[in-house]
Specification:
377 residues, alpha/beta, Arginase, Chain A, eight-stranded parallel sheet, globular
Amino acid sequence: MSTSAFVYSPVLTQHILREDHPLVPRRLRLVYELLEAYGVFQHPDASLVAPRMATEEELLWFHTKEYVEAVRSLSRGEHRYNPARYNFSQEGDNPVFPGMYEASAWAVGASLVAADLVAQGSVQVAVNFSGGLHHAMPNYASGFCIFNDVVIAIKALLKRGLRVAYIDIDAHHGDGVQFAFYDTDQVLTISLHESGEFLFPGTGFVHEIGVGKGRGYSVNVPLAPYTDDETYLWAFREVVPPLINAYHPDVLATQLGIDTHRDTPITHMGLTVQGFIAVVRELQGLAKGRWLAFGGGGYDLSAVARGWAWAYATMVGIDLPDPIPPAFQERYGIPRLRDEERPVDTARQPIARRYAEEAVAQVKRLVFPLHGLSASV
């Protein structure tokens, strides 16, 4: 029996939001092709699993009936609903496009397939890189996200009585997921992201710690632009392992957006692919046998292909060689898996480090005591 599952089908890659839109679904095909080129799917611990479409009932676990109906209608090109009421606009982040209901339902269904495999114990880790659509809200689209597969997949785990820790390493704050679980202690949400001072969605500050039973179960680590591998890993290690070890989740759910990469055109972080993989390895150490992984942001296609392929290989237990296999290299012009070193920005890095240190200190003051942890840990 394979210990890991990669949920994928070409159907997840074929839609186009808009010709000039930063989110390019065909990026998933590059990840799949690079894994194929490396022979990862030949490994006995790797399995390819087909997705399915989410049902309307499953979409309604988080989204309103009116919104689901509006998305379906707009997807068909009908004019029964005003797109602006649901945050759709042709020039903005969330354009209406033909078949958007089906494309979004496939992404949710793929995450539900992954969640079921992990919950049943069929595999130890399952990944759906078409998912991670963490901005979508109950009644409107947001940040390229129409249906929130993360929330719906986590709710599927909760329905099985499982306790979930969710870690979001996308450059953007996971605001839709935080919103969904802001008042419960059954889901611990931790988001490390470029600060809302500088980047959409303008949320995710340390003081957003949850309400009621959820107080202390919403954790945010906002970071400065140009944060590099070293500072990011330091902040992660200071905050995430102590909280996960105190919380004792049944399942670790992770959003693995790779728009923290230094070449991403619409964010300002400074991670390399190596830094991203170092974080993935940290997550692997925390998962302890039940790990549900989603995709997320990723707008430099080379970084997406290399980072997500390497991430899945890491889940399988394979350390990929640096030279990209010749066929893939010739087709896409990407010669190496790892990023080359660049000179350190001596002006920006101290600023980013101080920003991270202050964010971590605030988290320890506000959140750690609520979990029985010392602020000096």
